[in-house]
Design a protein that fits this description.
The protein has 5 helices and 7 strands, in the order E-H-H-E-E-E-E-E-H-E-H-H. By secondary structure, it is of the alpha+beta class. It has a domain of 84 residues: RNA-binding S4 domain (Structural Genomics Hypothetical 15.5 Kd Protein In mrcA-pckA Intergenic Region, Chain A). A hairpin with a 5-residue loop joins strand 5 and strand 6.
Length: 132
């Protein structure tokens, strides 16, 4: 599938969804409204019109930043391989220190999982232990 070069503008939330940067358009809208998407250095609303050559900066979970340059425009879904051609990722690579910090953070978060609520069998065993 080819990238449509005849369009001059596309809504930001639609483009973010089509480019597979967010799973759904509503998720892209929430990110825009939450200040997680900057276009050319400015906070952008979902209805902002995007043009080729615009610089986008996304704030991802855990404080990660992703920088993109818009190369092509599309308003309809396409295969992921074709969707990746809509932008160039200009995010600088991580340093070795940052990689190690993320690895340690991931390990520490894995150990901090909340305990699950006991099911019926486990509740009955707890009642027996407590003498109820």
């Amino acid at each position: 599938m080819e990238i449509n070069q005849t369009q001059t503008t596309v809504r930001l939330d639609v483009w973010l969804d089509v480019a597979c940067l967010y799973r759904t358009r509503s998720e892209a809208q929430r990110a825009c409204l939450g200040g997680k998407v900057l276009v050319n250095g400015q906070n952008s609303k979902p209805h902002r019109l995007l043009r080729a050559g615009d610089e986008i900066r996304l704030t991802r979970p855990l404080g990660r930043k992703q920088s993109l340059t818009v190369v092509g425009l599309a308003d309809r879904h396409m295969p992921k391989a074709a969707a990746r051609q809509l932008y160039t990722d200009t995010t600088p690579p991580l340093s070795d220190e940052e990689k190690e910090m993320r690895r340690l953070d991931r390990i520490s978060r894995a150990g901090l999982q909340r305990p699950h609520a006991p099911d019926k069998r486990e509740r009955r065993a707890l009642w027996k232990l407590k003498g109820r």
